[in-house]
Amino acid sequence: IGNSLKFFLSRDEGGNLYRQKSKALAITLLICLFVSLINPYGLELMLYPIKLISQKSIIDHIGEFQSPNFHHLLLVPYKYVLLLMIVLIGILKKHLEVTEILLTIVFANMALFSQRFIPLFCIVVAPIFVRNAQWILNQGRRRFVDLFQRKSSDLCLMDASASGYLWLVLGILIVALAVATNRIEHKFDESRKPVEAVHFLKKALLKGNMFNDDEFGDYIIYSAYPQYKVFIDSRIDTYGVDHFKDYLTMVYFKPGWEKVIEKYKINWMILNSDSILSRYLMERKDWRLIYSDRVANIFMRNISDK
Fold first, then answer.
1. Is residue 233 part of a domain?
2. Most CB atoms closer than 10 Å: which of 142, 217, 242, 286?
């Protein structure tokens, strides 16, 4: 789009270059669209993202589709990158190309609408910032510019002096040393994942269909599949709207939650220990608490009490 605008707005021979770029990009786009149709689901897979976005009942409950919450520390760097780009647009308004402005606006809007697009925004604006960095430095105070360029030259000399595969070998040695000294380890956070509860499940060999917290589903699949099959996991969109609505009816304790139990023939549940449903089941005689820790509660249905 940016190259097309440049072609229409250009009044010199340079417009032909933008026309050629637009043509090449358009052909590439058509080829990519055609190739992407070569998949087991054809056009249906191409339309899936559009269908997903249109399903508001699902989107509103998926964290990565929510707008960024700048109260979270993980999003602070993005906040400052966004503010920096706003300042740069004001400073560089006469030096930025139309394509750069369009890319910044489009991806900034996407990132503000859904936090899953924040990495794409940063990838797009990084080369824009780098391309204009030299002009910004030249407008700054000479003392600061000289210091920056001197430090940059020192780093270049240091890098040039490292012949062969020094940095690669050094990186491998550091990682190997960290592994050998147990500085790197792979484990799940037991304060968030039902690690101990799943250990119990593997030994208990519970029968029948389960109902589970969606955040527990991923770990149960990882640790206990195919012994246990989950009701849902964090891939909410793959289960469909109706299934997800039934899940919400259960976890939010909505009218008709007992009908969901009958519909799916649920015999036991693994829930967050502090959830509303978990606290309610403790008061029910037709559900029995068979395991509890600070993360998860497991309830078994007392069929005979119905």
1. yes
2. 217
Residue at 103 is within a domain: no
Q: Which of 217, 279, 214 is nearest to 248 (CA)?
A: 214
pLDDT tens digits, one per residue of 7-20: 666 666 666 777 78
Helix or strand holding residue 197 (H, E): helix 195-204
Q: Tell me what pLDDT residue 266 has.
A: 96
Is residue 118 within 8 Å of 68, Cβ to Cβ?
Answer: yes
Sequence-ordered alpha helix ranges (H) in 10-141: 14-36, 43-54, 56-59, 76-91, 98-113, 118-139
Entry pTM: 0.71
Return the DSSP state at 270: E
Tokens of 255: 């009218």
- Please state at what angle helix 118-139 crosses helix 76-91, rounded to 10 degrees: 40
Q: Which residue has the tokens 């000399």?
A: 157
Q: Which amino acid is at 6?
A: K
pLDDT in tens, 239-288: 988 999 999 999 988 999 999 999 999 999 999 999 999 999 999 999 99
Give the contacts of 9 (CB within 8 A, at least 6 positions apart).
98
What is the per-residue pLDDT across 24-56, written as a single tens digit (0 to 9) for each?
888 999 999 899 999 998 888 888 888 887 888
306, pLDDT greater than 60: no
Picking from 155, 180, 205, the residue at the C-terminal end of a domain is: 180
Supply the DSSP symbol for 194: -
Query: Is residue 200 situated within a structural domain?
Result: yes
State the pLDDT at residue 22.
81
Q: Which amino acid is at 181?
A: T
Q: State the helix-helix crossing angle for 241-251 and 257-264, rounded to 10 degrees.
A: 130
Residue 48 backbone zone (phi > 0: left; psi -120 to 50: alpha; other: beta): alpha
Q: How many domains does the chain have?
A: 3
